[in-house]
Amino acid sequence: MNKKIVLTVLSLVIFIALISVIHLSKKVDTFYQYQTAQQAWIGKEIEKYKATKGTYPQTESNLTELNPDLDQNKLGMLFTDKWGNHVLYLSPGVHNKNSFDLWSYGADGKPGGEGENADITNW
Question: Which band of pLDDT confidence, cut at 50, 70 and 90, is reported for residue 106?
């Protein structure tokens, strides 16, 4: 086979692979940013609950008492991160002893990690 053809095909394959990696990395960043924003919104809803009821909710299910638009189905979706893992809530928190801890273990669903696998927390 002609070396020029082989080099051209190989260059094309490398170019397509590079474009795919760049696209995937942007998507991962978007998931991470979206999840961070979603957890910030959840945190605000929890603070609204405390302002109204005088205490933090015992479980995430208690948030439906304050916001009638949050039925159990929507609440379940809200407490599922963009990677399909459960967003965890604890009150009082281990890290925030006077309020609550809210966290997601990132894309891999395991504690720790870097990049897309980094935990998203409120501490």
Answer: very high
